[in-house]
């Protein structure tokens, strides 16, 4: 390595290239190079092109440091986004995420490798940037601490080559090779100046120009003594170059494939463990709903704790029969299924109740005692002998006695239940549901219901008893004959001429101070009719049960054979109106007169029940005076509007009628 390196291209001149180790250079040469390349002193290079300290690695240390930080955050994101999240679809990442882990791990591996080479370059290299430096006598290429020095003695010419944002200055040697140096200035002028400076230096001779040569030559001592061999590196150091970047990438990808796969597996294992801990925590706290929710979610997403989950679910389920039933439904083939079924069976038989039997029979999955529980539930239903009990048996999917219940016990229980409630319409529905074989029983039950109602009506005493018998005794008798509870309820209210005449008299007496009812009546008539209709339906239900079923007349058009309960209402004016204190506003003492009778097909109308609502005790005419309206505005309380006076009064009157109607039932 000490002797000059000579190589020649076809027809070319020899080019001298020396490879030197910075650490083996004489102290004065090292100091001169540091002063020239790092401190900006002499001898200053004509041109300098600094390169990455790692040689073939693109990008700066800052770029790779930033890349590493970004990759680390992405890796953390891959780890902790939806980590242990029972509600997250990616709490356990699918295999597609392996690629993401591999890519990030490969990038991190590449950053670490690049950092190592940067660090190595910094620790072992020369104390100035790597790159190409053109001195007057040599072209020096620095790679770490290895310096490649090419003598300019065989330089043929210097050329400028423009292109893009940067041009190049080419050093063309005698053997035909060229060394490019990137420059940002005018390449033609730069090349001319470089050529001139090199030519001028080539004319220097020893010993006459020794001071000048010493000033411009950083390797002066080696050149004078021709002792280049003393600074040559050993063979291993000379060959220790940075591998090509593509090889670094391949090594990083190989490392990333291993590390990324391991990262994906480790992340999923850790997330799975976190999710299972949440399930166990809910079980330990005894939170039924939360445990059931977490158990279901982990069962869908979890990977490694299936057996432990089953153990946990069974221990939790043993506390209540409902939980045991749910456990068997969710895990009918689980390792604790037999034990859970036996335990649930013991609880159900000990409770000896319809709800517990149904809990067992509702779902056959995992159940081995279905026949025994079926018999027990049927026996309990027979002891209860109610519609509810037999329906519970059927709703619980009882099989052994289903036909017997549907054909015998349930119809009979339904008839008994409807008879007790005197639901005639329901009795007819039972006949339609179960067929003609039950017609006789249904008919007897219907007659029994009407006979019971008629007996109670005959025994009634007190106010309104005679009016009630006069209307409802013939009505119930007719309904009993037809075995049909339907009755049309016809309720209407009118504004009679007599009331309008009374209003005319009030207007003549009080002038504009009188507030007429007529304008408010159309707005409230329908509401009064509906209120009285509902009151009659309610009173009849309380008194007669389902023996009378009122319907609106519009619902039975074209069915003239149905009886009617006719209710006619009209407004009447009291003799003493309401008068306000300040403005002397006059309001009519409006009341509602009600007349009710029954119209039975083929018979005369029954006698009527008549009643009239009393004088209002709640209306306050003073509240409509202007002074009170102003006070309400100051206090921020709702104002009493005159147009609302009669609607309020008449709604109160219709409510009073509902109370008075009690006498007629």
Descriptive notes:
Keywords: Membrane, Transmembrane, Transmembrane helix. The protein is α+β, with helices and mostly antiparallel strands and 665 residues long. It has a domain of 200 residues: Double Stranded RNA Binding Domain (2-Layer Sandwich). Helices cover 53% and strands 14% of the residues. It contains 23 helices and 17 strands. Strands 1-2-6-5-4-3 form a 6-stranded antiparallel beta sheet, with no helix packed on it. It is elongated. The termini are far apart. The N terminus is likely disordered.
The CATH level-2 architecture of the domain at 465-664 is identified as 2-Layer Sandwich
Count of helices? 23
- The termini sit apart by 130 Å
The overall pLDDT average reads 84
CATH class wording of the domain at 465-664: Alpha Beta
Helical coverage, percent range = 40-55%
Low-confidence stretches: 1-11, 236-240
- CATH fold-level label of the domain at 465-664: Double Stranded RNA Binding Domain
Output the radius of gyration.
55 Å
Task: Based on Cα principal axes, name the global outline.
Answer: elongated
Strand order of the largest sheet: 1-2-6-5-4-3
Name the structural class: alpha+beta
In terms of DSSP E residues, the strand content is 5-15%
Number of strands: 17
Largest sheet, in brief, is: 6 strands, antiparallel
Keywords: Membrane, Transmembrane, Transmembrane helix
Transmembrane segments: 63-84, 96-118, 245-266
